[in-house]
Design goal:
Number of strands: 0
Largest sheet: none
Distance between the termini: 85 Å
Number of helices: 18
Shape: globular
Mean pLDDT: 83
Strand content: under 5%
Structural class: mainly alpha
Length: 396
């Protein structure tokens, strides 16, 4: 009778399949590991660190700037679920991906609020963009990548974990979007590709400065970020009406209103821009002079508007407009390290400083002005004295 009862108890025990390649936590608890990356489902469900994260997280830590403004919304924290004993737990059907839900929750409640100080655009990022993500998985991957890289800035103890998730979603989204960008931009998907490309530009900034990469020029040929940013313009040129009249329309109506206000304003030019213009007139070969002056004149208007505008400081549309409009000839001269082009770009960094309170711009201003300074011959470094003072950077 006793042997029959013991056999019944043994038979009632739930069986499990051993995994030779599962994570250490699942092996220790003797439960099946689904071996998902960057962290298995069991570790995510119980809020413990999965050893699959080792080797998948980027070795580069996010750049931080001491004293950077914390005015943006702080990422939210999910309540840690109670641990369920393995003997009582059973896999739900279908399985919820708790890690992705955490990222989506953080995006909707926090990250979206940091994308713009304008209420209409905050609502667009919080409501319209996730709706696009439900229809286009690569956009959802972009959303989750943005949220994860955002969390990595504000939860340093788990930065490796969030960066691993960020890069995983970034790669998945980029793989699908790249195929469409090369062969199949349509009226139906152009708005999704447009917002995804914006996310990839901000994501690259949010990773932090990379040695040798300076947004518009690089030590290794064409700058990585410039390729992404030029992609935004290419998509608009392919289907302008469909994008501007679609779910992202508020972005463009807001930009048009601000541009009209900028052109209607009679603002004095910064005297440092005036001095740089005189230098270009006096020293630059005549064939190159129009390229430099066009870029400088456009920058002068943008700088006068942004620095005198009562609008919130980190309104990125006005700040990035100069980069959007600058022509390829100027970029080519910048990549050749021409001193006039480098000096103009240094003055743009003063404009870019208006975004200093945005988490995804941390560390970039000092990185850029340092790159420009060391790219200039010593005789031309006086041209960027004012930008250096405004940014607060001095050579070591």
């Amino acid at each position: 009778m006793q042997s029959s009862s013991a056999a019944a108890r043994i038979a009632s025990r739930r069986s499990h399949r051993k995994s030779r390649s599962g994570c250490a936590n699942c092996k220790r608890r003797r439960i099946k590991c689904d071996e998902k990356k960057p962290a298995c489902t069991n570790c995510i469900r119980h809020s413990i660190r999965c050893d699959f994260l080792q080797g998948t997280a980027s070795s580069s830590a996010p750049s931080t700037t001491p004293g950077a403004s914390q005015s943006q919304t702080t990422p939210t924290t999910l309540i840690t679920p109670p641990t369920i004993p393995p003997s009582l737990s059973s896999p739900p059907s279908p399985t919820l991906n708790i890690a992705d839900l955490e990222l989506l929750h953080n995006y909707c409640t926090s990250t979206a609020q940091t994308m713009s100080p304008l209420p209409a655009l905050r609502s667009l990022y919080r409501i319209n963009v996730p709706e696009i993500g439900f229809a286009f998985p690569f956009v959802m991957h972009g959303i989750l990548a943005m949220s994860a890289i955002h969390l990595s800035h504000f939860k340093p103890a788990r930065a490796d974990y969030y960066r691993a998730q960020a890069f995983a979603h970034h790669d998945l989204g980029l793989r699908e979007a790249s195929a469409l960008l090369q062969t199949n931009i349509t009226e139906q998907n152009c708005h999704a590709l447009y917002i995804f490309t914006i996310f990839m530009c901000i994501f690259t900034l949010g990773k932090g400065p990379k040695p040798g990469e300076f947004l518009l020029f690089s030590d290794k040929g064409i700058a990585e970020w410039l390729v992404l940013f030029r992609g935004i313009r290419s998509i608009i040129e392919m289907a302008p009406d469909s994008i501007k009249n679609g779910p992202l329309g508020p972005m463009f109506s807001s930009a048009v209103r601000r541009l009209q206000m900028q052109h209607g304003a009679d603002l004095p030019e910064n005297e440092n821009i005036t001095h740089l213009r005189a230098f270009i007139h006096d020293t630059t070969p005549a064939p190159l002079r129009p390229t430099y002056l066009t870029a400088l004149n456009d920058l002068s208007r943008s700088l006068a508007w942004v620095t005198s505008s009562p609008a919130p400081a980190y309104e990125s549309q006005s700040t990035f407009r100069w980069l959007y409009c600058v022509d390829n000839e100027f970029v080519a001269l910048l990549q050749q390290r021409k001193p006039e082009a480098l000096a103009i770009f240094a003055h743009f960094c003063v404009l870019l400083k208006q975004l200093d309170s945005a988490w995804w711009m941390r560390g970039w201003m000092c990185h850029l002005i340092a790159g420009i300074y060391y790219a200039l011959d010593e005789e031309f470094r006086a041209l960027i004295r004012w930008p250096m003072e405004e940014i607060g950077w001095l050579p070591a």
